[in-house]
Amino acid sequence: MTSTDSSTHQGFTAEERAAMKDHAQELKAAARRGSRADKAAEAERDVLAKIAEMQDSDRIMAERVHALITAGAPVLAPKLWYGMPAYALDGKVVCFFQSAAKFKARYATLGFSDQAKLDEGTMWAAGFALTEVTPEVEARISALVKQAVS
User: Fold this and answer.
1) CA dihedral 21, 24, 29, 32 (to 10 degrees)
2) How high is the pLDDT of residue 78?
């Protein structure tokens, strides 16, 4: 069999490998933490630190998204997930913020896992591109997060 460049598997990108390493470190750090309260407080500090490391536009959006999610759905616990700020219910990620810079994308993403209760017929959106967090976008994010945990 001959191989062509177009059919050669290139494996994971450097960004994907970095995300997997981040996740492995997150799991190790969580295993070392003490009480449930200590784990929750440390996880939120980790999320805020990750947000603080982001580039300006991503950081501004991530700060607003974090504030909206923690205020609108206090049952969700902030945590890092593959190096991204995420919000979990009973340990399972419901939604996450992915900065544009993380995967060298054109826009940041607010994503929802299959744990989110966003079901709408036989097809619904589970990810939303973000270029700016306006008052209208804030209202939409708040509504989605509330629906996701209802």
Assistant:
1) -150
2) 97
